[in-house]
């Protein structure tokens, strides 16, 4: 065993009940390796309010109803996003001592596929690791009010992607105040909706698109409805999520979960790229996603996604690539703006 590694690391297994979920119940079986930079950090198993380094290790899922649902050509980028989310929340509470009653709010998030080959699903077991750097922000009395997260992704030991996020930890009263203000603004600018337990629904249930159209096989994994119309090249789609969904569900009275925005971005971009540029969902992979969050979305209010696609380009291998710009709204209030890039692998 490498003596340096043995003396400067400690490991934690993230079991299903290892920490309170931030916005919904899914927790993957992960292993987290802490690499303190001082002997004190190793002995005390706790971090100082300074930049810290971790390694997250997991087997890519096989047979999962969401992460393995679809054509099966590539490993799901959504799983990597969930790994980073879970690890970040665990570290914040376990190592940085952020009180559990402070809700974690993502300010921004992003993912990039840097090399496509390792993401191809060979049909057998595969291992993913994330080298994670966490930098505390706005430290008060030794406890950060936020974290800047950077992750380098490797599959079967081959570096192939990156992940990043910035999140803040709000005092409970501040969180509730922001939620209440945003809800009033959304209700003021839209028709009243019947509360529903599902993120992005309200009133009559919108029809969902066919799963194959958005690269899925199961109807319950479809999170967007058919476009309500196309205006100057922009598509407006409702966001639709089953209330009992393992990955996308929101807690009763909670806000729209973060994974909904990533998956809805991918699916809305697929629909726009297919309509405008002839992309085929079965042969298309999401290679880049960036998002900035402006406010909380209430899970019991209707939500829409507006997507506009740029003219397609080609990568170095000559494959078509499409970039879209997206905005998620409740009423006239914009919750999130994002960009997504798809690659047609054919």
Task: Describe the model.
The relative contact order is 0.14. The protein folds into 2 domains: 170 residues, Hotdog Thioesterase (Thiol Ester Dehydrase, Chain A, Roll); 158 residues, Hotdog Thioesterase (Thiol Ester Dehydrase, Chain A, Roll), CATH 3.10.129.10. Strands 1, 2, 3, 4, 5, 6, 7, 8, 9, 10, 11, 12, 13 and 14 form a 14-stranded antiparallel sheet that branches. The N terminus is likely disordered. The longest helix has 20 residues. Helices cover 19% and strands 34% of the residues.
**Helical coverage, percent range:** 10-25%
Mean pLDDT: 82
Label the overall shape.
globular
Structural class: alpha+beta
H-E string: HEEHEHEEEEHEEHEEEEE
Topology:
Blueprint (H helix, E strand, L loop, with lengths): L2 H5 L2 E5 L15 E5 L4 H6 L7 E8 L17 H18 L9 E10 L13 E14 L2 E13 L2 E12 L2 H17 L40 E3 L2 E5 L19 H20 L6 E10 L10 E6 L3 E2 L5 E11 L2 E12 L2
Antiparallel strand pairs: 1-2, 2-3, 3-5, 4-7, 4-10, 5-6, 6-7, 8-9, 9-11, 10-14, 11-13, 12-13, 13-14
């Amino acid at each position: 065993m490498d003596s340096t590694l043995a003396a400067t690391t400690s490991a934690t297994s993230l079991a299903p009940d290892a920490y309170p979920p931030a916005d919904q119940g899914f927790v993957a079986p992960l292993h987290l390796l802490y690499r303190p930079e001082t002997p004190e950090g190793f002995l005390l198993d706790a971090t100082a309010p300074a930049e810290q380094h971790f390694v997250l290790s997991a087997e890519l899922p096989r047979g999962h109803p969401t992460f393995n649902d679809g054509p099966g050509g590539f490993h799901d980028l959504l799983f990597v996003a969930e790994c980073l989310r879970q690890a970040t929340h665990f570290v914040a509470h376990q190592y940085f001592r952020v009180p559990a009653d402070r809700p974690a709010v993502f300010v921004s998030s992003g993912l990039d596929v840097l090399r496509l080959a390792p993401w191809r699903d060979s049909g057998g077991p595969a291992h993913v690791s994330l080298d994670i750097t966490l930098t505390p922000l706005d430290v008060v009395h030794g406890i950060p009010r936020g974290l800047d997260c950077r992750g380098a992704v490797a599959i079967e030991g081959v570096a192939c992607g990156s992940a990043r996020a910035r999140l803040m930890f709000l005092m409970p009263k501040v969180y509730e105040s922001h939620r209440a203000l945003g809800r009033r603004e959304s209700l003021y600018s839209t028709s009243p909706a019947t509360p529903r337990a599902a993120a992005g629904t309200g009133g009559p249930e919108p029809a969902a698109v066919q799963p194959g159209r958005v690269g899925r096989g199961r109807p319950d994994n479809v999170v967007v409805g058919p476009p309500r119309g196309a205006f100057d090249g922009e598509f407006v789609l409702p966001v639709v999520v089953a209330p009992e969904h393992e990955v996308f569900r929101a807690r009763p009275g909670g806000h729209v979960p973060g994974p909904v925005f990533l998956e809805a971005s991918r699916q809305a971009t697929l629909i726009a790229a297919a309509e405008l540029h002839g992309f085929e969902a079965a042969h298309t992979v999401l290679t880049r996603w960036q998002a900035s969050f402006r406010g909380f979305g209430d899970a019991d209010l209707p939500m829409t996604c507006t997507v506009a696609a740029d003219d397609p380009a080609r990568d170095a291998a000559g494959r078509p690539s499409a970039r879209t710009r997206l905005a998620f709204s409740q009423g006239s209030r914009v919750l999130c703006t994002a960009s997504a890039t798809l690659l047609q692998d054919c």
